[in-house]
Specification:
Layout lengths: L2 E6 L4 H12 L4 E8 L7 E3 L6 E3 L1 E2 L10 E4 L3 H13 L3 E4 L30 E3 L3 H17 L1 E10 L5 H17 L30 H13 L5 E8 L6 E9 L5 H9 L4 E3 L11 H4 L5 E8 L6 E8 L3 H18 L5
Parallel strand pairs: 1-2, 1-6, 2-5, 6-7, 7-8, 9-10, 12-13
Antiparallel strand pairs: 3-4, 9-11, 11-14, 13-14
Helix pairs in contact: 1-8, 3-5, 3-8
Length: 341
Amino acid sequence: MGYRVVVVGATGNVGREMLAILAEREFPVDEVAAVASSRSTGSEVEFGETGRMLKVRNIEHFDFTGWDIALFAVGSGPTQIYAPKAASQGCVVIDNSSLYRMDPDVPLIVPEVNPEAIDGYTARNIIANPNCSTAQLVVALKPLHDAATIKRVVVSTYQSVSGAGKEGMDELFEQSRAIFVGDEIEPRKFTKQIAFNVIPHIDSFMDDGSTKEEWKMVVETKKILDPNIKLNATCVRVPVFVGHSEAVNIEFERELSAKQAQDILREAPGVMLIDKREDGGYVTPVEAAGDGATYVSRVREDPTVDSGLTLWCVSDNLRKGAALNAVQIAELLGRRHLKKG
């Protein structure tokens, strides 16, 4: 006996990835519904590589009664309207938007890091999926924090354009082509040219000069991992289609050698350590794309602090940063609370 699962935003990048991962991981489903806005109603999306096509239903008229889990992959605006509706009709919402992440009554979950927090979902019948850059960071930090207690983190991100959706991917492709043929470039999705460039600006600016993306990494890491961790982030958009990278500097309360950290990370859930100190002995976004692991490379000691390490962290932002983490949350929910059969 399986679950009845709804994917809201099924025609977008993350929604399609959710459908693919549900099929790939053989999530126990009796029925899957693909739901999106009215402009996508009647179109079809594939359920993974099963060859089975799902007709897209209109979110405005969808009744969530009798459905077990709804994976939301739409923006905060539609989520604000339809997530409470689904939750009130008895369907547990796993939301990929930023809307509920800092709600004290909504657990913010990365299954490898804080699985026990999911027990609080009953307060709102909603579970939040973290920001893509936060998800991979905390997977890498968790085992090290358990070993030596993290005091402070400084992280610089190198985030792919797929984090800005299909429009971001299209803009990188179109601008790259325009440069080669000598056409004029006009930024639309991004504030500056993204092709052959980097932009130190993701999301809106805040009063203190940081961006909302940077703020999300700070507050979400505290909520998921430890409120005592101090974190400073600089988030940068780079001309990569899929895969976020992060250069991470960590200061600990207790000494932890690079060798000890490598041994810990090698056995950590969700982490794949690829750390050979030779040409090509590290992972880049090209290798991480299409994979569910959080890759860690270039682990080394930081001589500028008493107990510090630096590492390189890469993950597919559409998978672990969004769709895969949501499906893993659904699996965790099933094991702990919604047991079937």
